[in-house]
Design goal:
Blueprint (H helix, E strand, L loop, with lengths): L4 E9 L2 E13 L4 E9 L6 E12 L6 E11 L7 H24 L3
Antiparallel strand pairs: 1-2, 2-3, 3-4, 4-5
């Protein structure tokens, strides 16, 4: 299990640059678990202290393929209420990342 590693991801679109600071909380290769938190950057809404993602890959129901399961935990600054708009926007970004990874894996099977 690997704990406490940080990654900085930068995205450039036209003349705009955005970034996300990610803290890796746990990597458990034996159980196919990857837990991380978004702790800073332009990708983290100002009302949030962090968003924690707990991800696990499990076998598909038909014995072929895999299913990635993710649980998000929102940590707001000063325990302020989480707005629906911030929650929905953050979930949509996470879903977009999962879809991009899924597309890559399907296009490049091992």
């Amino acid at each position: 299990i690997c704990v406490c590693m940080y990654n900085l991801y930068m995205m450039v679109s036209g003349d705009q640059t955005s970034f996300v600071l990610q803290k890796v909380d746990a990597i458990d290769e034996a159980n196919l678990v990857y837990d991380y938190s978004i702790v800073g950057g332009t990708g983290l809404h100002e009302s949030l202290e962090k968003v924690t993602f707990q991800t696990k890959v499990v076998p598909g129901t038909d014995g072929n393929g895999s299913i990635a399961k993710a649980t998000l935990t929102f940590h707001t600054k000063d325990d302020a209420p989480l707005s629906d708009a911030v929650r929905d926007e953050t979930k949509a970004r996470g879903a977009g990342i999962f879809k991009a990874i899924e597309g890559y894996v399907l296009a490049n099977p091992a």
